[in-house]
Amino acid sequence: MEIDLKKELDVLIALRKVISSIVREITPDPGMKHPLSDATIEDVRQGFTLIAAREREISEQLGKPSLHRPMYKGETPKTNVIKMHGLKSSKDED
């Protein structure tokens, strides 16, 4: 099962990259008319949403964090820190 999920994830990643490349290449300069209809643009957005959701589901099933979450320049990954009060460290046991 894990091999099938990995293969599906690889297909989704490749598909997302191809669609992203197409979108970048057909995006006109500011002020110019876009060659795609508004309906097609919305379909592409919905497609990206579906791909991202399935990638996230598969990553969670495989026990791997999503590596495709956007990171902006200068941003550091957010982590959750849980403070464990009352636990003794190995140093305290000596």
Mean pLDDT, to the nearest integer, reads: 81
Report the radius of gyration as a whole number of Å.
Answer: 21 Å
- Which stretches are poorly predicted, pLDDT < 50 over at least 5 residues? none
Order of helices and strands: HH
Strand content: under 5%
Structural class: mainly alpha
Please report the total strand number as a whole number.
0
Distance between the termini: 46 Å
Helical content, roughly? 40-55%
**What oligomerization state is this entry in?**
single chain
- Overall, the morphology is extended
Largest sheet features: none
Helices, by number, come to: 2
Task: Indicate the topology.
Blueprint lengths: L1 H25 L11 H24 L33
Helix pairs in contact: 1-2
Task: Give a description of the structure.
It is a single chain. By secondary structure, the chain is mainly alpha-helical. The chain has a domain at 2-61. The protein contains two helices and no strands. It has helices at 2-26, 38-61. Helix 1 packs antiparallel against helix 2. The longest helix is centred in the N-terminal third of the chain and has 25 residues, at 2-26.
What would a concise description of this structure say?
The chain is an all-alpha fold. It is 52% helix and 0% strand. Helix 1 (2-26) packs antiparallel against helix 2.
Tag the structure with descriptive keywords.
single chain; 94 residues; mainly alpha; 2 helices; 52% helix; extended
